[in-house]
Amino acid sequence: MYILGIGCYYHDSSAALLKDGEIVAAAQEERFSRKKHDTSFPINAIIYCLKSQNITIKDIDHIGFYEKPFLKFERILSQHLQMFPLSFKTFLNSMPSWINEKLRIIRTIRKELKYKKDILFIEHHLSHAAGSFLISPFEKAAILTIDGVGEWTTTTCGIGNENDINLMKEIKFPNSIGLIYSTITSYLGFSVNNSEYKVMGLSSYGDMNKSTNKYYKKLKKIIDLKEDGSYKNNMNYFIYHYADKMPSRELCKLLDGPIRKPDEEITKRHKDIAAALQLLTEDIITKILNYVHKITKCDNLILSGGVALNSVYNGRILRNTRFKRIWIQPDPGDGGTSIGTASYIYHSILGNKRNFILKDAYLGPGYSTEEVRNFLDKNKIKYTEIKSEKELLEKTARLIYKDNVVGWFQGRMEWGPRALGARSILSNPCNKKMKEILNIKVKHREKFRPFAPVVCEDDALKYFDCDIPIPEPADFMLMVYPIKKQWQKEISAVTHVDGSGRLQTIRRSQNHLYYDLIKQFGKLSRIPILINTSFNIRGEPIVCTPYDAYKCMMGTGIDYLVIDKFLIRRDDNPKDKWNSEKYAND
Ligand SMILES: [Fe+2]
């Protein structure tokens, strides 16, 4: 039985394909359309899913959509009516996409895919919950979902038991932790639904002491938080319920200044506000989690929704609460709901037993050696073919050790927002200048943003102060942990200002080539850790095809590309006219 899950029209459109309960393919539309956070109908991702199994739309038994559009439309109408006439302009702006696109999803699916069978609509937070729980290793778990907003819901908690999900409590729009985080993101001059993680990174530069950070006390005014974790946003500080913008004038007054312009200097005040926001978010979620543990009496926790991408907090959950184990899928945000929708139909609606645990994130397209060779030959690209895996590992490890920046393109593309060793840029973390080198050669990104380390799971506890046993979400780069004091200077390029690292742990069973490369590098450097950053430049989605990878290398300062068994040196090939600087503008 094949089930196709679809999520689109808000942000991060995606498609996922289930075969008899097992996820066999999943990808975000942005990787194909090359438009970051693409919201459009994910036709390319769907074509990829079908092609990966050699099937056509006629083989699909059910299609699921990640939310109930009419229920969401009801919320939009109701919020605009309540705020009329203030909301009139935004209302008029939003209507065309509702009338032409969002409310016509059934028609679009039938027309674009020529699909005649039933289409099922799963509530948004149920899609979030299912997208993590039903593919997790837990038979039974407490579930918490938090995002900006779905139809009406912004936060839910409940319990998952085998193939049943019971969401017991919910908090509704306009009360939303996700929207608080996005409002402050917008106030600090970063883009909403895109740059929340930058604010998280910035928070470490601010005052993380609750008693001395004056913005922590101030920010507490924007939310009324009860002991059981239920909360209400103080709507004097927000205008997202009727306008295109998010912070109100009152909020600017509270935070001692106007909204920061994107190119304006980041001051101590901005850093302290980011820190205060992180502290407040952690307070709220900890309260909710304590309550969820109390009502579910369950030690396993499933986290989902965009807020589950807050890896700084994720790393603290097992220390701050009574939960003993945690699991989060590689893409807990809206992208991940296509998996949730399809899994919910197969397991919870059709009642099939769970038979699949997601152990790695390699669900995207892959290319055979012959496909890569054909691409290289057709484009007259100069390369060296490497005869054995051993040689490939030795050569690549040496290049990285000699401070080259290496594009690493191997196997199937990762699912989710993070590069996890299939479409990664790898470099030497022991070189103190590597952060600057990467920023000059490839990333052009803000100085305050850290680079991430990747370490083999069996070496992680030597270098990082992780929970024990190391939770699986660390494999998906979703847990930030302190780097042990004695190693911080040695790997300063991946040590954040507060001594933490947003590590990825890798197990050999997930990706043996990547794992062996890190070990090989360790033989040269005595530290088996690499810098792993996504294979793209700022403002562009992660590369998907050999063409994307080659183009990215030639347009930036990446020195070598290791693609399948082929080694390509940038300087051996004519420089492309493609100007990476032009695209580095998010
Ligand atoms: Fe969501």
Model description:
The protein is an alpha/beta fold and about 575 residues long. It has three domains: about 150 residues, Nucleotidyltransferase, domain 5, CATH 3.30.420.40; about 150 residues, Nucleotidyltransferase, domain 5 (2-Layer Sandwich), CATH 3.30.420.40; about 210 residues, DHBP synthase (Alpha-Beta Complex), CATH 3.90.870.20. Helix content is about 35%, strand content about 20%. It is built from 21 helices and 22 strands. The protein has an eight-stranded mixed β-sheet with strand order 13-22-21-14-15-20-16-19, with helices on both faces. The chain has a five-stranded mixed β-sheet with strand order 3-2-1-4-5, sandwiched between helices. Strands 8-7-6-11-12 form a five-stranded mixed β-sheet, sandwiched between helices. A hairpin with a 6-residue loop joins β6 and β7. α3 runs antiparallel to α4, α6 crosses α13 and α15 crosses α19. The longest helix has 29 residues. The mean pLDDT is about 95. It binds fe (ii) ion. The site of fe (ii) ion (FE2) has 7 residues, from α6. Fe (ii) ion (FE2) binds next to α6.
- Please, how many helices? 21
Named once each, the bound ligands are: fe (ii) ion
CATH class descriptor name of the largest domain = Alpha Beta
Low-confidence stretches: none
Kindly report the CATH topology of the largest domain.
DHBP synthase
Strands in their spatial order, largest beta sheet: 13-22-21-14-15-20-16-19
Give a quick account of the main beta sheet: strands, pairing sense, barrel closure: 8 strands, mixed
> What is the CA-based Rg, rounded?
23 Å
Helices and strands: which structural class?
alpha/beta
Q: Write down the overall mean pLDDT.
A: 94
The number of E-state strands comes to: 22
Q: Rough shape? A: globular
Amino- and carboxy-terminal Cα gap: 41 Å
Strand content: 15-25%
Helix content: 25-40%
